[in-house]
Design a protein that fits this description.
12% strand, DNA-binding, elongated, homodimer, three-stranded antiparallel sheet, 5 helices
Chain lengths: 113, 113
DNA sequence: CTAGTATATTCGAATCTTCTTATCTGTGTC
DNA sequence: GACACAGATAAGAAGATTCGAATATACTAG
């Protein structure tokens, strides 16, 4: 059971391992959007965007609803937003660590004079 | 600011997008371990493992401590375990959805007779 | 049926990842 | 110093990912 679970996690991470796909998921945070709107909003090439959608669909991160000529995308499970939010906090805490480390080094440099 | 943050998230996901690296992170859930122990425990090739360690170090997911002839690895920030736990739940809820969907289809098939 | 709009798919080139094998570096022991 | 051990790195082949350009499909309007 562990092996398939690890594969699953790795696949989800793989699916999210691209800035454009992160942007797509984040844009859907507050609900569904038509493909065209996403493409405009994120400034993507149509074909490229569609490829990224396909990757996210394949991993069942996105679902789509067709209405006439348009395709509306949405997140299948908002839990992934939670993951992105955790990483945002992680990013800033890491930044803070780095900054205070640099400050300490700076102090050291000052002390030398 | 959004662009670098998305890149950061994508990089973290990329670093975790391999079953072996997931296994390494999970093995460190309860504290540091020497490289050799990880390698034995997970049944890895030494060189390959070392490359995976390097990827996780580069993204500052792991930190290492050298003691004589040995290198001890540990997670820099346990928040990533939280992310893995969220995905475990996500996996099971997806499984449950799939199973009940299959059951419904099964019922449909029965009804046809 | 034709034309137009929205989205998806296919193909190929460039780039990145992964694995294996071989080699290197650092540390401890005699 | 010479050797052994733990771990890191380098090189290259095989495979996966990414992108743009072209093409395909599906729906709508007239």
């Amino acid at each position: 059971m562990h092996e398939p679970l690890r594969r699953f996690k790795a696949d989800i991470f793989q699916a999210l391992a691209h800035p454009t796909r992160i942007a797509i998921v984040e844009a859907l945070r507050h609900g569904e959007l038509p493909a065209g709107k996403l493409i405009d909003q994120l400034g993507l090439e149509q074909a490229n965007a569609s490829q990224h959608f396909a990757i996210l669909r394949a991993k069942m991160i996105l679902v789509n609803r067709k209405a006439g000529n348009h395709v509306f995308y949405s997140l299948r499970d908002p839990v992934l937003i939670e993951v992105l939010d955790i990483l945002r906090r992680y990013f800033y805490s890491q930044l803070t660590d780095t900054v205070s480390m640099l400050e300490e080094v700076g102090q050291g440099e000052q002390a030398k004079r």
